[in-house]
Amino acid sequence: MRWKSAAAVRQGLLISLLLGATLSATPALAQGPPSEIPVTIENNRFVPSEVKVKAGKPFVLVVTNRDAKSEEFESKDLRIEKVIPAGKTANIRVRALKPGTYPFFGEFNPKTAQGQIVAE
To answer: Running DSSP on this structure, what letter comes out for residue 111?
Structure first.
């Protein structure tokens, strides 16, 4: 019986590890980039006020402020605070959520600027 050299064994192990890492990463790459969900601030309100997302998948809220004043998108449950200046758009990355409802509001107009994300 012929024995392989230690270098050949190490090389085989390295190839196996790299191949395993590549194959295990493939499903994540196949999912593509996070989905973008448009939300508008208009008349001190979020439109839509309810955003439905798939549980377990990250996403990006693309928030456009059409009001004449800045508004802050805030969610205590999601630990997000982001000021969106008047006339500007901000991307808010949200981690994958467990199923449930996650309220958000406008810090500067909390009585009217309210909404929720529903992860299903």
So the answer is: T
Contact 86, 67 (CB under 8 A): yes
Largest CA distance in the chain: 82
Using one digit for the tens of pLDDT, what is the confidence trace for 50-75?
A: 999 999 999 999 999 999 999 999 99
- The DSSP element (H or E) to which 118 belongs, if any, is strand 114-119
For the chain, domains (ranges, CATH) are 35-119 (2.60.40.420)
Side chain identity at 83, as an amino acid letter?
V
Which tens digits make up the pLDDT trace of 17-37? 545 544 444 454 456 678 999
Mapped onto helix, strand or coil, the DSSP state of residue 79 is: coil
Would you state the structure tokens that stand for residue 21, as one six-digit string? 């890492």
Cα(97)–Cα(9) distance, rounded to whole angstroms? Answer: 43
Which pTM does this prediction carry? 0.72
Q: How far is CA 4 from CA 10, 12, 15, 102, in A?
A: 10, 10, 16, 58
Residues 73-93 have a mean pLDDT of 98
Beta pairing partners, 71: 84
